[in-house]
Every structure is written in structure tokens, then in C-alpha cells.
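Z., the sequence and structure:
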Amino acid sequence: MGLPCSRFPLSHPRRCPSVPAPPRTPRPRPAARSAPVRRRRRRPRWGMRMATALSVTVLAAGGIGHALVTGLDTGITRVDPFKDMKNRPQAGHGMNVLVVGTDGRDRITAEEKAKYRLGGAPCHCTDTVMLVHISEDRERASVVSLPRDSYAEMPEHTDLTSGRKHHAHPVKLNAAYAEGGPSLTVRTVESMTGVKIDHYLEVDFTSFMRTVDAVGGVQICTARPVKDSYTGLDLPAGTHELDGGQALQYVRSRHIDGAADIGRMQRQQRFLAALVERITSGGVLFNPVRFREVATTMLSSVRADQDFGTDQLLALSKAMRGFTPASSEFVSVPIGDMSFPVKGIGSTVKWDAAKAQKLFQALREDRPLAASKPGSPSSAKAPRAVVVDVAPRTVRVQVYNGTRTDGLGRKVDDALRGTGFDTTRTPMTGTGRERARTLVEYDPRWDRSAKTLAAALPGAELRAVAKRGGTLRVTVGADYKGVTAVRSEETARGGPFEAVTGDRVVCP
């Protein structure tokens, strides 16, 4: 019998090797032909050698083969996030994976905790939530970041810790994991997005650090110094090769400026683009030994659903053979209010319902999210604006009227909001004498945000005030002449969802 083609799942059928069957009636051979007879009797071992040789050839030529990924999924800790789920969204096109990063630091060494500022007890919550969509043709990956503080309506459920039954109630998105684990997290995200989740993947701090080290680190470029005293991140302007611990500091930092979680999500997107570039350009997918090393490292400390296994790894690795950073696109869910107050919960991030609905509809229909080309005609129609370092939508502003002109505070609040700033919408009356010059007061930690605000208020005085916090204070003076339109330095983002492809955010 010929060697079965099923042994070569990545081979083309016409190339499937076949070994001629031996004759049914053995015939005597001359002494000179005795060697071939001995080889036939040992055909099972010879066939195994041939299968191995061809598998290696296929792996080297076309990515990763079944032989080397079989058994990798045995190291995955399994969860069942879809158990007893009902009334789920209708399936769309492509594959949707919910990726959550948990605040797990139990297996990190004491030395690493000290070096990378990972002290304290884990919160048993999600530190990062991303919805990853793999297109049906496997040529595009769309990554949607969901802020962990997003306002969410949690479905009714049973608390895993206390056993108490809860009715539907408002929470922050990251609380879903704390109350109901992976299952409640999936239910909550599906309810918020209307997107059916096909697979669930959970990564903790340990898995993250070990995976980055396994691929040889990632390259990150910073246009300016990036420093966060909370995580210990301290990068001067320039190009940096980050190891696993440094990369964890980079993606966790949220106290660099007023951008907070939005800025952190953008750094996470830059990191993922850099990771895709390192994997696709570094030969990981075409080197079976390296692939197995990286995959084993990552999968040994992740949790995934029951159906995420060898076949899915093969499908993803085949899809990524032609991947480049340009094949990936990144976007944050559209925000309506960065500081939406909820009684008993505090400040939450409220999505822009209309824009978010369009975004998730595009995912269901398997449509690209990023603009076709940077600088396309649609972007050329945008109003001229001053380019600033920090996106105005991430800058929180409280307006005070420092003049005797009635209604000026409301006018300035509306104008700042119109150009993208996150104002409180409740302007107040300043105290003391009338100000001749507009004043911007800010916490020194938010100095870049203050410069963005000052660009919108030409001639304004900047004054640092320690411990003021993330909300900048504008006291309008008599010199006020209007608000100048500003836009973020990151002009690569475009299209209706401000999405960006990976090739636009990796190091040049």
C-alpha cells in the first residue's frame, strides 16, 4: 500500500509521495539484488524516515507542519468559557478570538517583581481585553482594544467566589472576570459588541514575558523620552530592544501623561505590531525548531477553550506565512465619554454607541477597518489643524471663566470639545480679579497634555501645579480670541474608526 496522503496535511495532493507496493508472490533474486529485498522487509522504518524527511522539507518550504505542532496543545490549561451559553450573537465571517491579559504574578520570581515593579497581590481581574478578528481568507488580522474600565452591563450570573446569584447590573468591564471568570467575560463582551466569540485565550504576566524572550525580544521606537515611575519604565528617545520584562513595563504603563488607558492601549498596539514583525521577519514561522520553542513557551502558561488546539495552530501559522505588519490593523473602540460617572462604581469609559456599532458590524462582515491608504482623498478633506504630541481626546479639561463676560466659559468649553478635547461640560466661574491672560494649570506628570491644550489656546500661560491630577484647568482671560483646531501627531490613523496598520507604527 502507498504512503497515505493524510500524513502530509500541508502538501499538495499531486505532490503526495507514494511507495510502490511489493509483489504479492516473492520471487528469488540474484545475489547482486539482495539488498533491495532487505530494504523492502524493513519498509516500515524506511517509510518513517521518508515521512520525516518530507515533513521537514514541507515545514521548511511552507511554514509549520502537523508533525511538530502535534502535542503542543497538551500543555494548555483548558477552560470552558462557552458552557451553557444561550442567546449568543449570530456567527459572522472569519474567526474571532477574545484575548485577555490577566494580572497574574504568582509564578514571577522575587527578583523580577522588584526589577519590573510587580509588587502587590494580583487582582484576579483582566488587565487587558482585546478582540482579535482573523479574516476568512486568513490574510488580515484586526485587533480591537477594549478599555478595561469600559462601562458594561453585566448579564445575570452566579458569583464564582461567593456563590451568590446576581441580576444584570452595571460594572467596569474588567470586573466581569473577577465575578464570573472567562465565561462571564465572554458573555459580557458578546453582549456589548454583538460579535460571536469563537475562541478564548488568556495570557498572564509570566506567559507574556517568556514569549517575548523566546522570540528574541521586540524593537520599539520612541520619538520622545517615555517614563513611568509606577512601572519603572524609562526609555530615552530612540530605538530600543526590549526583553520580556521591559516589554511588560512598556505595555502596562499608564501614568506617562494624561492619555492614561488610551495611551496604554496604543502602546500595546505598537508592541503587537512589533511582535508580528519579529515573528514574521525573524524566521520563526519557517523554522520548525524555533516555532516549537516559541509555541511551547507561550502555550505552557496560557489558558484557552477546549477547541483551541493543533488544528487552530496550523490554520493560524499557515495564515501568517504571508503576514507582514501591514497585514495587521489596530483600533481602539470609539469613546463617547472618557469619564462617565456611575454610582457605586466611579468613573468609567463610555463607548460612542453609534460608532462602536458600526465598528463591530464591520467585524461581523469581515471588512477592513483601516483606511485604504494614508493620505487618501478622505483624509485630505480633513480641516487644517496644528499637529500636537498628545491626541486631544485623551486630555481632560475643566474650564473656568476668568472674565466678566457672561457665557464665555460655556463658549470655550464647547469650542474645546469641538476640536476633540474631553471637557467636563460644566464650566465654572473663576475667583479673584479678572484675568488678562488665559491660564493653563497642570500636574507636571501631564506636561505633554498641557502642551497640546496650550496649542489650542495660543498665547495661554502654562503653570505647573503639583498633585493637581489628570484634569487640566483652563482659566479663560480677556485675551481669548478663539480655539485653534489641533490633531494628534499620529496621522497614520485614518478611516471611520481611526484604525492603523501595523507597518505604520513599527520602527522605520
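Residues 260-281 form the longest helix (22 residues). The mean pLDDT is 78.

Let me know what you think.
H.
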